[in-house]
Amino acid sequence: MRKNLFVDFHRMGLIVRYSPRKIPTDPLSGQRVKFVSLSDQGIRLIEAEAIDEQFYIFSSGVDRLLGGFINILLRLLRDPDFKLKHIEIYEFMFFASAIGTQTSFNIGSERCVELIKSYRSLSRTQRRATLETLEVELRPENYKGDKTSQRDFHNWRNKAEQIYYILDQTVYFEVRDKTLYLRREKVRSFSQKMRYFQQHRVSRTPGFELHHVVPLGWSESEEQFKLFDDWKNMVCISAFEHAKITQNRNRNVVMTADEENILLSDYSENQVYLTNRETILYDSGKQPTMLEYNKQLLEVVD
Description:
three-stranded antiparallel beta sheet, 12 helices
């Protein structure tokens, strides 16, 4: 529990761990830990009266633990143009887990969907042959480096299964037969994204993706989810800029403006500059409305 669960709970923001000198430690570091206490978030989880509220608070912690991955999966499963009703474990391993990574395998949402559909078009025999080939090729002895570099196919699958187990504990997803589904029909609502295009008088464009500035995975109640899932909290940005935000764990939530352009930052030096009609598609006339709404949402999450 101390070496595994406490580490996850700390990264979820539910507890605080301290050094032998009772100094708070970094949840991502390997510092020596001697003491632990509940965080304010952990207390809120315990004191929440409704099971639905507990689910949301816990889910927001899972989103922190997984580096914002809840939002990626919600985007894949909610977008009616993608037509993905589920994501099987190997589809997650091979394609979905590559979205927004800081590796040479980094892909965007649209490319991920293309690859998933191509994989599904294979016959059962072809899929089995693909898995057998990967199991042979991805063996530790075929690679140089430390244990991380030498993790084999079975380690990869075990990690994916652990993530699916965690996602199954959230308010958003359920896992059946190692396949991920949306848990609630209401999460399927896509009307606000359609309103974005109507309000800004723009169309869906290849190479651009709709992004929630304040992530849906940060919701701590159904009411907050509805607030975050609003066209005023969305931007249609280039896949390249979107990848930057994803790699920063969706923490670029502060919206400011530079004339017609938008700047998204994370309370620090990590900034993504969005140039109107080049890396963001929107009506600059709606800028005051978006900035004010962002300010209101940040007051909610603070």
